[in-house]
Structure formats: structure tokens, C-alpha cells
Design a protein that fits this description.
OB fold (Dihydrolipoamide Acetyltransferase, E2P); single chain
């Protein structure tokens, strides 16, 4: 399956470590949405790969009725009035197989708390057509995520480092319980 890497995009709704069902239906999947700036060069690569995959699947150019396009949306359409999505596209991606998640030095990330909505990542997605009895279209599979840098949280949760300071470990001299 052809793959494209989108660099320096923001992750939203990350479900990278435990698969979940969508609205309690279907097979549990790993998933995330990615906020891609309209000027990101990866966006053009993604659209070109989509066109190539569709042309390969339908060489005559005759696309079936009801064909669903890539799950890529104008940010303003999905989240009107939200500045985080202005001038961006939103790409939804999922996979039944667990994506590889690594940090900047390519070490595997095993702690889900290290990934939060709003951080900047690089993401590799595969692009492919599907042809099911009730649905046909083009989509992308979530393959791998690399954590790049912190970003402003999209879920409005506070940063614990701003709320707390380290405390002494119980049993250590001078600790709260020692």
C-alpha cells in the first residue's frame, strides 16, 4: 500500500494505544485526527497519492456512485469559529493494527500520557481504496506516529507541571511520611 508522511501536523483525538469502537459500533480500531496547515507540503503529496490510488483502482475513470472521498475536511467546516482549525485541513485516519509510536530519537513510546491532543507529530498514513458491499471509497490507514514537539492542548486540560511541584518520596529523609 502506498504511504505518505505528513510532517509537523497536530494530533487530535489520539487513540493510539488501546483500540476503540466508533459510537459503540464496528470493529475496535486505533485512530487519530490530524490538523494539517493548508501550506504544509505533505498535503499536496497526500492529495496526489489519493488521485493515484483512485486512478489505479478505476483506470477507466468511471467512479461508482456513492464513492466516498478521502476523510479530509476543511477545518473551518468541521469546527467553525475555532481558531485551532482555521487555515487547516482535518484528516481522520484509523487502523485495526496498532500504529508504531516513537519519540524524536526513534524510541518506542509506551505511555499513552505522552501523547495529547494538540502536540505536533509526524504521521505516516497508507492510502487505499476499499470496495465493500454497502460502501466504496478511498481512505487512509494510520501506520506510525513520531512525536515532534509540544503544542497547546486542544482538550483544555491543564498541564500538571503548571499545577504541581515535585514532592519528596515517602520514606525518604525529610519526606512527608518519613
Amino acid at each position: 500500500m502506498p504511504t505518505v508522511t505528513l510532517e509537523n501536523v497536530r494530533i487530535s483525538y489520539p487513540t493510539l494505544f488501546t483500540p476503540k469502537q466508533v459510537a459503540g459500533q464496528g470493529e475496535p480500531k486505533y485512530s487519530a485526527a490530524f490538523i494539517i496547515d493548508n501550506n504544509n507540503p505533505g498535503l499536496k503529496k497526500l492529495l496526489a497519492l489519493r488521485d493515484e490510488v483512485v486512478k489505479t483502482a478505476y483506470p477507466t475513470g468511471k467512479i461508482p456512485s456513492g464513492f466516498k472521498g478521502l476523510p479530509l475536511y476543511a477545518g473551518e467546516d468541521k469546527h467553525p469559529g475555532n481558531e485551532d482549525y482555521a487555515g487547516c485541513h482535518l484528516l481522520n485516519s484509523s487502523n485495526k493494527n496498532k500504529p508504531v509510536v516513537v519519540d524524536q530519537q526513534m524510541n518506542k513510546v509506551l505511555d499513552p500520557a505522552q501523547v495529547y491532543p494538540g502536540m505536533f507529530v509526524n504521521v505516516a498514513v497508507s492510502v487505499y481504496c476499499y470496495n465493500q458491499t454497502l460502501s466504496k471509497g478511498v481512505t487512509c490507514g494510520l501506520e506510525a506516529v513520531q512525536l515532534v514537539r509540544d503544542g497547546e492542548r486542544l482538550d483544555n486540560r491543564p498541564n500538571v507541571n503548571e499545577l504541581f511541584s515535585p514532592i519528596a518520596v515517602p520514606g525518604e529523609a525529610g519526606g512527608l511520611f518519613g
